[in-house]
Amino acid sequence: MRSLHSLGLQYPNMESATLTSTSGRPRATLASVRDIPWPWLALGVLVACTVAGFLVYPTYPNYDSYYSLIWGREVLHGIKPSFEAYRAPTEHPLAIGFGALLSLLGRGGDRVMVGATLASFVFLAAGMYRLGRATFTPLVGLIAAALVCTRFDFPFLAARAYIDIPYLAFVIWAAALEAERPRRGMPVLALLTCAGLLRPEAWLMAGLYFLWIAPAADWPGRIRAAALAATAPAIWVAVDIVVTGRPLFSLRHTSGLAEELGRAKGLSGIPHATETFLLSLDKAPVLLAGILGLALVLWLAPRRLGMPLTLLVVGLGTFVLVGLAGLSVIDRYLLVPSLMVMVFAAVTLGGWTMLREGTLVRRLWALGAVLVVAYGVIFTVSRVNLGSFTSELKFRGESHASLIRLLSQPAVRAGRRCGPIFTPNHKLIPDTRWILGARQDDVLARSDPATAGKVTRGVALLATNRTSLLRNGLTQGIETPADTADNLPPAGFHRAGTSTFYGAYVRC
After folding, report:
1. Which of the residue ranges 231-245, 319-333, 450-464 would you say has the lowest mean pLDDT?
2. Helix (H, G, I), strand (E, B) or coil at 279
3. Which of 258, 320, 464, 501 has its CA 20 to 30 A from that of 49?
4. What is the DSSP letter of 184?
5. Residues 85, 90, 93, 99: what is their CA dihedral angle, to the nearest 10 degrees?
6. By CB neighbour count within 10 A (0-12 exposed, 13-18 middle, 19+ buried), where does 45 fall?
7. pLDDT tens-digit profile of 18-64?
8. Which residue intervals of 57-137 are DSSP H helices?
9. What sign does the CA torsion over 253, 256, 260, 266 have?
10. Angle formed by the axes of helices 306-324 and 201-213, to 10°?
11. How far are the Cα atoms of 227, 393, 395, 502 from residue 59, in angstroms, in the given order?
């Protein structure tokens, strides 16, 4: 390995060497630039943009999050949550608890859930800064935070209230606190416990962290840490037992749904899925910069690798275990590794700040970073379609408003007295149930085999717009005549109302 002193390598929180220039003006100018609170300014800009986005694009929760709201409302009403509904997602205990709290606000609780998830995204970006700063330098932290904000998959997940965003915020802040003070203990475990109540991958992280801190703790401390590390899986199993009577319901339900929806890949499909998903989440320039950044840290300062490399390896290992377990192999299970790729990419772009000022290597590295940034900007401008991104956000808000208008029409409301509401498939069920405050048996999917023979009386909802048809009227991966027929008016039903994206047909 090269001599660190020959490269002028600094360690976190070390003071920079003096500038080689003898003039006081460059030093004073640089000092004034450094005195600007860049992290706070960046945070302020991010908060302002997030608030503006929340107001300009009124989006609503995704499929899974709407079920968390519905299940939370059922809990408050003393009803067992409908975990076994047709193609219901996997339950997440913390999301249900939060959904119960928001259901007290009435129908507007869904927008509050979106706002809370957007706030979690801001905390995620701040956590990326703290992790990059603690492990490398403040500039690396700022670049890592900027990268997560410019990978549009992440703000889009926040705008749709995916639980992945608060999960990632918990994990990244746990990593940042540990990087700042190794073997920090209970605060880190508490954050991983919260993450474990949203996604079971955090159980492994909590278990590994307990093994890391246990040797340095006394026995009372070990017992407390072990109890906290076991809290998330214990609560998850307890919820499954109380609601379904089966302690492993969530695991088996998830694997069964993955197979039904064609998301189970098996071990042979993991390598290709890993490459494809990381390219999709990080994009090629960031992924290449991340690989280069990892190599640079391995060469120059392997002792700084600790936390980012740990999360990268654990995240990839968890993804492999997900595939082996037969669960859904989707890109969201690689979100943690994709964030670590961004941290290492930030090293490629800002790691020159680890070197002493005035050195030739530092100047050359900084120049190379500028060229890489220029390439990344050109790559992004030439390939990213902001119009499609904003159109997707607009559709999410407008289609929901369209559904509300349709369900509020007098003829449609009158038709509900004749029987249940039938949706083409599972996709519109949670939105419809939340809007109407309906029970499980009040809204049924025509694609559900158990519904066959029941589509004789009631209200049939149809997707009538091309975009709504592709998003909600057809079941992706099931291109059959029966699937198409589920979005046609049933025999004997007459049109009772229409809106921009949907139509309703009634028979009494």
Report:
1. 319-333
2. helix
3. 501
4. -
5. -60
6. exposed
7. 333 344 555 555 556 667 888 899 999 999 999 999 999 899 999 99
8. 63-76, 93-103, 109-135
9. positive
10. 140
11. 39, 6, 8, 18
Q: Is 303 left (phi over 0), alpha (psi -120 to 50) or beta?
A: alpha
Q: How many angstroms from the chain centroid is the CA of residue 172?
A: 12
Largest CA distance in the chain: 90
Q: Could you tell me what percent of the chain has a pLDDT over 70?
A: 88
pLDDT score, position 10 = 60
- Coarse DSSP helix, strand, coil percentages of the chain, rounded to the nearest 5 percent: 70, 5, 25
CB 507 within 8 A of CB 468: no
pTM of the entire structure?
A: 0.90
User: Taking a C-beta distance cutoff of 8 angstroms, is the pair 153, 342 a contact?
Assistant: no
Place of tokens 């069920």: 429
Q: Which residue has the tokens 């390939």?
A: 383
Give percent of the chain with pLDDT exceeding 90: 67
Q: Which two tokens stand for residue 391?
A: 């159109």
Evaluate whether 337 touches 315 at the Cβ level (below 8 Å).
Answer: yes
Q: Are 418 and 460 in contact (CB under 8 A)?
A: no
Query: What six digits make up the tokens of 220?
Result: 């009372």
